[in-house]
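Weekly structure sync, notes
Attendees: PL (lead), two postdocs, one rotation student
Agenda item 3: pending single-chain targets
PL asked that the sequence for the first pending target be pasted directly into the notes so everyone works from the same version. It is reproduced below exactly as submitted, 185 residues in total.
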Amino acid sequence: MVKKLYVILILITLYIQAYSNEVYPVVSSNEALKKEEITTALAFLGLHFKRFTYEVPKKHWLEFTCEQFKKGKKLDKKRVSLFFPKGENNFLILLHTERSRIKIGFFTPGEGGGSVSYEFKDKYSTFSYNVLKDRKLVPGRRIPLFAWAANKESIEGIGEGQTVEEVKSRYDLVIVVFVKLMFKK
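Predicted structure, written out during the meeting:
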């Protein structure tokens, strides 16, 4: 008896599916991707970025210095310098993160850029990044601009406007990006 009911139920389900008038086509779209879709796709590939804009009245260089800290102790320092024309400028900091490696790139539209890489012996399961406070360019003075941090366990994200010391004290591994404005002498 149970077998007959089961067979009848399957036949009714198949009948409903075969004669249902509801059809929902899925169509490929050639429209331009939205900003959120691009950002999500890049994040899926391990790419994250921040864009910065500023204005300086003469030709100049920006020197980006990346300092790596593990449990608050400085391990390494790497530099990249980029030349900029006078006026309004912008640059991107591009991060490519994998479990045991991060590559940090500095790029200007149409002008090129440079990058630094860090390899880690330990595997980190979570990371966070954000801009730091006091982001005002002063000629000849190095300012903290951006931080990337990782822990072996889950972490609360870096809040915008934190100081270098706050970030270093909260995370196992930290890379801080400093920037210095320089004019030709």
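Discussion points:
- Residues 46-182 form one domain.
- The mean pLDDT is 84.
Action: rotation student to compare against the earlier draft before next sync.
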